[in-house]
């Protein structure tokens, strides 16, 4: 992967964990969002298709996800494009699809290799 994955030992273990559904549980400021973004990007630069990223609301996608992805990708010099109307980020020929859990009916109609 192009991004350097530094962080605490639990963060790095989560980012690289081979289990299909690992969990990273921690309190406020423990680095959960950062670790998940780096895990997502490690999948973007690996094999597979598009990916999905779920948050409770689109407000959180807008206020947390987009700025953090912009910060990490932009700081790494990796080309990307955010399409807020589609709720997606395009990077490395793949799409990260953002959906919310407030309306489960919207979690249909797309194929991803990882969520």
Provide an overview of this structure.
The chain has 115 residues and is α+β, with helices and mostly antiparallel strands. It has one domain (9-106). The chain has three helices and four strands; from the N terminus they run H-H-E-H-E-E-E. The protein has helices at 9-16, 32-44, 58-76; strands at residues 51-55, 80-83, 88-91, 94-100. It has a four-stranded mixed beta sheet, with helices on one face. The longest helix has 19 residues, at 58-76. The protein starts with 8 loop residues before the first helix and ends in a 15-residue tail after the last strand.
Helical element count? 3
Structural class: alpha+beta
Rg for CA atoms? 14 Å
Approximate strand percentage: 15-25%
* Low-pLDDT sequence parts: none
Instruction: Average the pLDDT over all residues and give the rounded result.
Output: 89
| C-alpha end-to-end distance | 18 Å
Spatial strand sequence of the major β-sheet = 1-4-3-2
Shape: globular
**Helix and strand element order:** HHEHEEE
